[in-house]
């Protein structure tokens, strides 16, 4: 092994004719290196040759006899425009990115074990080789193709021969206009990166399902609309970036068919006026920052509501929605979704973590506690923590002013951090505190203009509290913690690139609504008799949407028809009433319960098959369940769990 990396005065590598057993030679970042001796061509045992960033190096000696070579790295050897032939069939990794080549050398076709091929930043490269000229074994080995920042104009149909290809990186190819429709034959392809391909107007029609594709970046392209074939044939797409697609005017109504999509980025799509009428059910990140013409976002209300109904109690999902710098936004539907989230605080522990950002200067009027400035104190209800077993939930809100900030010269800042410090003081004088940071944005810095509202949910876990004076952990469920004053202090972490003035103008805390939209009967009755309910207990609760019941028979109980989520926790003794009309249910969870039949004798609707809105049905480990009615009409059903139903 000979390592000569970062030798700033090295002009030539010494004669190596006597180093016949040398396996590794690296002279990386030797910026004055002008010459590599011909003797290197006789190093029959050389496995790795790394000359990356040798910017003055112009030529290489013959490498034909390097029969053991597996890795050749010439990255950013910017004066090399021709390569000597390589005949080693063992080459697995080849990096010729950042060189001055205008075409790919023909001997590439003989590299039958090539796995990683890197050609990015070859700004003179105008075309790709015909992949069909590669030997068969080569096309089944290559897994990554890097062609960023080149002058290529199209990806040929022969790319379909790369059957093992998992990643295709084409970002910054500003002359690229076309990709062959044969791309759909790449069944192993997981990632396609076309960022800043500014002439690329349309993703090719996909005629066959691409099950492996998970990530697609079309940011900075010239696309005007998404092909319907994307919605039809990409069932496992999880991330879609459409940032700075300035010609994109709308997303298709079938967009919700991307049921696996979790992350959608639409930053600076300045012609986008509306979101589709329905969004993918698993979406957890929606970033529409700086979509200045965006007005209609009615589907966001349903997205929040759906997340609340279908997310598990301890899910790690965090729904994050950003509409910063969306000056035309009509926020009514967004506020309705947030209000729905607020209602759930009185029903059960938060089922979904959430944050959002949009223009505004006022704390919502339905917030019980608000204050001018950056701090607010509230008196918590007695035994406020009892319902939630180990954590408590709040909705927090601040209005931040961005004074004299936005301009073309200073168009971005680093991610904004908001810190919440919670101080609890009890009637016995005990003090507890908890710090919590909200780093609102990751990755690309974000510009702001005018006042913005930042709103998020927060779960404060008991074990994270510590004594104000000693710093020791405390369990505040002990006697004496039922009368608590809570003080919330908000602080901004000012980004180092920000030159204007940041200020928290107002803040607020919401702890739930008194309107009963849900009931959580969380009694622990393992050693007690079954909880008895009056048949008319819910008779007048027509607005009831959530019902979670432990150890309680519902057979003779009248349930409101508007119920959307019904959950019977483990070992619940449950029989469902025959008069209950369940057509509005979105989630039905009877996991590990004692249910035997579903709606025996029900007349309207005649079967569970009329639950057109049902998304999740969980009957796992219902060991007494013997029969199921027809499920043919459950057109919205996405999850059915019958695990452990032995009969």
From TrEMBL:
InterPro entries: C-JID, Leu-rich_rpt_3, LRR-SigEffector_domain, LRR_dom_sf, LRR_R13L4/SHOC2-like. The keyword Ligase does not apply. Keywords: Leucine-rich repeat, Repeat. It holds the Pfam family C-JID. Residues 147-270 form the Disease resistance R13L4/SHOC-2-like LRR domain. Residues 359-510 form the C-JID domain. PANTHER family: LEUCINE-RICH REPEAT (LRR) FAMILY PROTEIN-RELATED (PTHR45752:SF195), LEUCINE-RICH REPEAT-CONTAINING (PTHR45752). This is Disease resistance protein. It comes from Corchorus capsularis. The lineage of its organism: Eukaryota, Viridiplantae, Streptophyta, Embryophyta, Tracheophyta.
């Amino acid at each position: 092994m000979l390592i000569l990396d970062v030798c700033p005065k090295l002009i030539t590598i010494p004669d190596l004719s006597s180093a016949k057993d040398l396996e590794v030679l690296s002279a990386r970042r030797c910026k004055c290196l002008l010459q590599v001796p011909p003797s290197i061509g006789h190093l029959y045992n050389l496995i790795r040759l790394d000359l990356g960033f040798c910017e003055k190096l112009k030529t290489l000696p013959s490498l034909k006899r390097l029969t053991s070579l597996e890795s050749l790295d010439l990255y950013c050897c910017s004066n090399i425009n021709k390569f000597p032939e390589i005949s080693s069939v063992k080459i697995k990794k080849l990096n010729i990115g950042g060189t001055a080549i205008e075409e790919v050398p023909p001997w590439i076709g003989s590299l039958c074990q090539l796995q990683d091929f890197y050609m990015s930043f070859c700004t003179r490269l105008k075309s790709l080789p015909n992949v069909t000229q590669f030997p068969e074994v080569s096309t089944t080995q290559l897994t990554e193709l890097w062609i960023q920042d080149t002058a290529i104009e199209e990806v040929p149909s022969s790319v379909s021969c790369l059957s093992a290809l998992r990643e295709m990186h084409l970002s910054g190819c500003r002359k690229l206009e076309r990709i062959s429709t044969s791309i759909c034959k790449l069944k192993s392809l997981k990632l396609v990166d076309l960022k800043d391909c500014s002439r690329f107007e349309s993703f090719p029609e996909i005629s066959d399902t691409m099950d492996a594709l998970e990530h697609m970046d079309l940011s900075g392209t010239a696309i005007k609309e998404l092909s319907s074939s994307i919605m039809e044939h990409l069932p496992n797409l999880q991330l879609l970036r459409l940032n700075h697609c300035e010609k994109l005017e709308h997303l298709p109504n079938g967009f919700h068919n991307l049921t696996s999509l979790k992350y959608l980025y639409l930053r600076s799509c300045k012609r986008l006026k509306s979101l589709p009428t329905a969004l993918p059910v698993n979406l957890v990140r929606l970033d529409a920052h700086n979509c200045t013409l965006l007005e209609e976002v009615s589907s966001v209300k349903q997205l929040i509501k759906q997340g609340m109904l279908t997310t598990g109690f301890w899910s790690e999902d965090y729904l994050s929605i950003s509409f910063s710098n969306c000056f035309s936004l009509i926020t009514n539907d967004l506020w309705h979704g947030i209000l729905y989230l607020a209602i759930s605080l009185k029903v059960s522990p938060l089922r979904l973590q959430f944050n959002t950002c949009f223009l505004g200067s006022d704390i919502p009027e339905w917030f019980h506690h608000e204050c001018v400035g950056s701090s607010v104190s509230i008196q918590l209800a007695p035994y406020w923590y009892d319902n939630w077993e180990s954590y408590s939930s709040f909705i927090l809100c601040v209005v931040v002013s961005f004074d004299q900030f936005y301009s073309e010269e200073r168009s971005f800042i680093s991610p904004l951090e908001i810190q919440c410090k919670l101080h609890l003081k009890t009637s016995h004088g005990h003090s507890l505190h908890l710090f919590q940071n909200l780093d609102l944005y990751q990755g690309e810095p974000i510009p702001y203009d005018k006042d913005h509202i930042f709103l998020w949910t927060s779960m404060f876990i008991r074990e994270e509290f510590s004594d104000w004076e000693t710093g020791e952990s405390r369990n505040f469920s002990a006697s004496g913690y039922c009368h608590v004053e809570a003080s919330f202090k908000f602080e901004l972490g000012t980004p180092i690139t920000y030159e204007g003035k940041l200020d928290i103008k107002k803040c607020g805390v919401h702890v739930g609504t008194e309107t009963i939209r849900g009931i959580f009967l969380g009694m622990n009755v393992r050693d007690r008799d079954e909880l008895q309910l009056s048949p008319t207990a819910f008779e007048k609760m027509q607005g009831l949407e959530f019902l979670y019941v432990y150890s309680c028979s519902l057979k003779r109980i009248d349930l409101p028809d508007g119920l959307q989520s019904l959950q019977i926790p483990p070992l619940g003794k449950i029989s469902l009433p025959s008069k209950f009309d369940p057509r509005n249910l979105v989630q039905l969870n009877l996991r590990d319960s004692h249910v035997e039949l579903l709606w025996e004798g029900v007349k309207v609707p005649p079967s569970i098959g009329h639950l057109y809105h049902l998304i999740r049905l969980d009957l796992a480990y219902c060991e007494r369940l013997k029969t199921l009615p027809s499920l043919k009409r459950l057109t919205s059903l996405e999850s059915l769990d019958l695990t452990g139903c032995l009969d």
